[in-house]
Write a structure and sequence with these properties.
homotrimer, 208 residues, mainly alpha, 8 helices, 74% helix, globular
Chain lengths: 208, 208, 208
């Protein structure tokens, strides 16, 4: 329980930083920063908790909202100092993804669901907050960026943890999940690691 | 309970008007009007109810759906008469926001959550229906409009109500919430009231 | 129960095909295909189950996830063979809609809700998965395509089933729902059947 709380707390803080950065790119006011920080920070875990029929984690412990709010305030007063907000957003998002995926796994294990569902919960907890941020902010969702490992990093990380949990124990397996997720995402960003994408043929008949 | 029902009913009707106006701007047919009216009208309250583990309010009382449907039909046959649909949409949305925020607060108080969570429920009930409408209709979400008080109006209104409820009683506090939310939003629309936005520096590296 | 499972299974498979086609249009990798296939395939039924306070159907029976995954893999290796992916996507979506609407109705009947709510559940189960797919993939949502019957097909299909269930029995009524939904949607696509849309006057004041 404490482990979930820690992982949730860390992912809340770092996802809230990315929400604040998205708000800074949209040039919102301080309450807009709080809104995006909170949406991004608790979005993924809330989807997970609704699906697993748990009380959303921030309703049980509203202190998570304070964590998200302080991250928003930090970004509001410091984002102009950094050189490239998109770059910071991307890397913070990678860090948050890497703690949110094991947080999702841990919560799923606590409810006794099977392996496949646990993996899904890890992926959803990791990706849904950022997806909501990007859809609401009218940015291209990270899941759509071609030639980057994003959902893939979350999926392989979650699957590694589920595979290793019986032999390593839960805590060590969750660490593996975090490490694998971050390594794949970071390697993709830094070195261009990628899976083959669907054969690029120009869509002849895109209707819009 | 009756108070929540009244506030929910009023916000359902006025939000449904805005959903109908969004459908008219997208030039949909009558069922498209019903779809957008219902999505906007019950979206925020449904999110609130799912988070609080209550039965969504329109499942318990399907008459809300009739309210939303009649608003959709009214708009379908009258929207061409008005001069500026975007302007009507914005002002109806302001009115709906001002009743939906206290409706969210009232529902939250009924489940015994703390102050911070109650404020969030007020803000979510007020903003989520319109956000769904704008995201699905491919309009710029109101929460992203620079230099307007929107989430801010909902937040300050909800916080005022939570602060005053112990001394004024719930009904008076909810009236304050509605009044403060509407005044801030209307002042922002009519007189340009605003908070300082994040320092406008052109984003040098927008990736899309 | 078995009937719901069958309908859910069929709609999962066909919606997953459309999710895979959307992923192919966005040129994602295989995990991107799995993500979009799963989102589209279980999105509508998950919304339905959360609203009805049922355990999401794929958590109870994770084999649905395997169905979605196999559809994603099929599309990943065959989508380049087809002439017009947008056209296949549209027609598969029509087929999936036609089985998902009765699946939603059936699930709603199982929980004892009234007629209006049952119709809504049918419409939501049919449309929400595709809507999530389109919003996340940055495609124009099918619900917004002018002059096509989409929500209308789902709505009339669901309403027919609800009207006929008392006399025909549930299984026959669900077949009527599937047939009516498909006929209206297919007639709209093939022959341009449509309802009158909102009087087309150019929006003079579109703010964006």
């Amino acid at each position: 329980m404490t482990l979930i709380a820690l992982l949730d707390g860390a992912s809340v803080f770092v996802f809230a930083l990315t929400g604040g950065l998205a708000a800074s790119r949209a040039q919102l006011d301080i309450i807009g920063f709080l809104f995006f920080a909170a949406l991004t920070a608790v979005g993924g875990g809330t989807v997970r908790d609704l699906l697993l029929d748990r009380t959303p984690f921030w309703i049980d412990r509203p202190s998570y909202l304070l964590i998200a709010a302080s991250a928003a305030i930090v970004v509001f007063f410091t984002a102009h100092l950094v050189e490239s907000r998109a770059r910071w957003l991307t890397w913070f998002d990678a860090a948050a993804l890497s703690v949110a995926v094991p947080a999702g796994l841990a919560a799923a294990y606590g409810t006794g669901v099977g392996s496949a569902v646990a993996i899904i919960m890890g992926v959803l907890t990791g990706t849904m907050g950022g997806l909501m941020r990007d859809v609401v902010a009218n940015e291209v969702p990270m899941v759509l960026r071609q030639g980057e490992l994003y959902v893939t990093a979350a999926f392989v990380g979650a699957a590694s943890g589920v595979l290793l949990a019986p032999t390593l124990g839960l805590v060590a397996a969750l660490s593996v999940t975090a490490a694998v997720t971050f390594l794949l995402r970071a390697g993709s960003l830094a070195f261009g690691w990628r899976l083959p994408v669907y054969k690029a043929r120009p869509p002849r008949d895109r209707q819009s």
